[in-house]
Amino acid sequence: MKTIKLLAIAVMSALTLSSCDEDKDDKKMEQTSCEKVTGQNHALLVIDMQNDFCDVVEGYKSALPVTGGTSVIPYINELIKCDKFSVVAFSKDWHDMGHVSFESTYKDEPNRVVVEEKTKLKKVTLDDGSIQYVWPDHCVPNTKGSEIHKDVAFDKDKHFVVNKGTNLNVDSYSAFLDNNKVGKTGLDKYLKEQGITEVTVVGLALDYCVKFTCLDAIALGYKVNLHIKGTKPVVPALQDAVIKQLKEKGVNVIE
Known about the structure:
CATH topology: Rossmann fold
Number of domains: 1
Radius of gyration: 22 Å
Number of strands: 9
CATH architecture: 3-Layer(aba) Sandwich
Strand content: 15-25%
């Protein structure tokens, strides 16, 4: 009986050691966010990690929270602290009251606002025939909502910042250009001056500002990487379609 017990203990010990070894192997195989970064003349673009888009902000009710938006902050911070980027740049939505994307702008003409059936998002048709999505008022300059979330490793003295959507009459999802592709934020000019040829994009939200930043970056001649673990969509049902579109346009999507 004693021999059987000793044998059982030996087998359990062997199984435990084997399990520990497998866990170690899995950890070795899983790359950190920084280890996924390659190339030279490389910039990190952190898109709109502002309080109004983050779903967990202490003492503040976000205007347009992206579900899970705050959860990507640790991953983004790893990238910010990574030593492989020549430039770390942040974009910020920056809309004065009366902005074309604000719900309050259309308070006196409610019939102009319609709900899109597929996404349930609100939209209006502008005078030029283009479609403008309408959101709760957000990221008004110099308000709590416009600030970068306090848990993001942002350094205002070290990191480059561009404000977008400053034109009352034209929205700007991309960190590079207004939606009409005329107004420029200054980001492309700065990156070119720094000799940047490749960008990695993270932030909020995948299906809007992150997507259009990636597409404009491709059009402007950059090699573009998108880290899925560093972003979340407004409409989760659109994620697969957005990723497919970005891959087709040449974006390197990193899981």
